[in-house]
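check this one:
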Amino acid sequence: MQLNGERQIRIVVADDHAVVRAGISTALSDLPNVQIVAEVGDGPGVLAALDLQPDALVIDVSMPQFEPLQTIRQIRMYYPQLKILVVSAYDDDVYVQGLLQAGVDGYQLKDQPLADIRLALQRVLAGERWVCTPLLSKLMRGVPLVDTGLTPRQRELLWCLQQGDDNHAIARRIGLSVKTVENHLTRLYRQIGVQSRLEAVHYAAQHPQLPMIPTSSQNLGPSQALNVLIVDDNLRYRQHVSRMISKMQPNCAVVEAAHQAEALAAVSQRSPDLALVDVVLGDEDGIGCAAQIKQQSPNTRVLLVSAYPDREFHRRGLAVGAVALLDKKDLDAASLRLLLEDV
């Protein structure tokens, strides 16, 4: 993505201080073909501004209602082409490394000249990684990283890579399709900030504090008895989805709920691995229900479904921690199988 092309480069600037936002916007506006499409000051504002389909997000992650690592990971998942440049006063190397692993493309300190922000944006738009000079020496000392939030499946994959398994061997070892293994590896590489299998193995060797999970000591394949919660006010639809899941995974424990109270009661009895929640539950708000499920059971993977998916549902769902919004007509046996394999 070049700044000297004919197409306008759309930028969102996010900082909770209006003066800082104005300064950054003014500095970036001097670049050719740059258009500041939004200036926002909090987490909900960031998520709303992403609907404008910007090319880059220039952000101070220390803002109200914004959880940096989790939200950056979610933004990276939903907007893989978006360039993310952090402009922050924090120079803690562990904090910086955590954000780089979460998916940001560059990190610039606020106490550096505004001209450096322009250069940083140009570099990340060109597809490069950017870390400002004062941080480089800290990062190169190899300070141990913070907890990357790797899932058991991702730690298992790292262990398989250390054994020298190729994708076909991993698929056989843990009982997934080769395509699903490839998708898992892509997300793993992005999360730990590497580009290849060799770099991932090196990462694991450099971080022995990360507990790897040998597949022989786990039961994470398709035969695992997952707990699935289906929240939908349509009885026939609930039963239809439940039957599909039971056919694919007979050992799977499926619980159905018609409204929020039933759903939360079920979660209090047993935390589900996966929750499928309709956006509209009669007169109730399914996204609000999803938020309550995440609050009560943070490790539950929540997927919203709707017969009428739109951008607003998508934005609100992302804000409460849902991992996706699916069109009901697309939720067939094949997509369900992928969802269950991905848990």
In short: Residues 143-147, 216-223 have pLDDT under 50 and may be disordered.
